[in-house]
Amino acid sequence: MAILDIITLPDPRLKLVSEPVERVDDQIRKLMDDMLETMYAAPGIGLAAIQVAVPKRVVTIDVSKDEAKKEPLFLANPEIVWSSEEVSAYQEGCLSIPDYYEDVERPTKVRVRYLDRDGVQREIEADGLLATCLQHEIDHLNGVLFIDHLSRLKRERVQKKFVKQAKRDAPPVPSAPRMGA
Q1: Would you say 129 and 109 are in contact if contact means Cβ atoms under 8 Å apart?
Q2: What pLDDT does residue 67 have?
Q3: What residue spans carry the region label Disordered (predicted)?
Q4: What span, in angstroms and rounded, lies between the C-alpha atoms of 87 and 104?
Q5: Which terminal CB of the chain, N or C, has fewer other CB atoms within 10 Å?
Q6: Which residues are annotated as a binding site for Fe cation?
Q7: What is the pLDDT of residue 81?
Q8: CATH T-level topology, domain 12-167
Q9: Is the distance from CB of 100 to CB of 94 less than 8 angstroms?
Q10: Catalytic (active site) residue 125
Q11: Where are the alpha helices (DSSP H) in the chain?
Q12: Gap between the terminal Cα atoms of the chain
C-alpha cells in the first residue's frame, strides 16, 4: 500500500465528474487500499478517488471512533437511491480544503447502492455521521465540494483564501536568461 498525494483547492480537478468503474478488479482494489491508507494517514474519515487525482467513482470511508476496531467501507459507483426529507447539520471539513470547517445541512438518512470490494452490488442505509460522510464523498464524485453548499459569500471567501495560499506556495518561476547587450 502507498500513501497518495491529496489534491487541494484550487486544483480544478476537484470539479471533475468522475467516471464509473467498469468492474472491481485488482487495480481498483489496490486503489481502494492506497486510498484507505492515505485517508488514515491524513487523518480523515472519508476519501474520494478524485481527491488523489484519480477520476474514478471510488470512495473509502471509516467513521469508527475506536482505533482498534476499524470498520472501513469500500464503495465503487456509489449512488444515493433514497434520502430522508428530514435534514440535520454537521460541521464538515475536507482533506482537499485543509483546516476549514463549516456547518452543512444534508438529509439525515440516506440509502446508497454501490459495488463492494469484491464487485458485489450492495445497499447501505445510514444516518448520522455516516450519512453525512456518504453524501460528502458522493458529492466529490460529482465535482461538488462541501463549500458549494454554503452561501456564495462564504464560498468565495474560502476560494480566495486557497487561491492566495496556492500562489504563495508556488515555486518561483525562473527568469529567462538575458541576451548580451
Answers
A1: no
A2: 75
A3: 162-181
A4: 10
A5: C
A6: 94, 136, 140
A7: 98
A8: Peptide Deformylase (3.90.45)
A9: yes
A10: no
A11: 26-41, 128-141, 152-169
A12: 56
pLDDT of residue 174: 63
Pick out the residues of the known binding site.
94, 136, 140
Structure confidence at residue 30 (pLDDT): 98
Cα separation, 150 vs 152, whole angstroms: 6
**What's the confidence (pLDDT) of residue 169?**
84
User: Which of 102, 123, 137, 156 is flagged as catalytic?
Assistant: 137
* Per-residue cell: 16: 471533475
Average pLDDT for consecutive 10-residue bins of the chain (181 residues)? 94 97 98 97 97 98 87 97 97 96 97 98 97 98 97 95 89 60 50
Go through the chain and tell me how many residues it has: 181
Alpha-carbon dihedral angle through residues 29, 144, 88, 107, given to the nearest 10 degrees: -70
Q: Grid coordinates in use for 5?
A: 498525494
Burial of 175 (0-12, 13-18, 19+ CB in 10 A): exposed
Question: What pLDDT was estimated at residue 124?
Answer: 98
- What was the pLDDT predicted at 100? 95
88, containing H or E segment: strand 87-94
Question: In the structure grid, which three cell numbers stand for residue 143, read together?
Answer: 465535482
Comparing CA positions, the residue from 94, 1, 92, 22 lying closest to residue 51 is 94
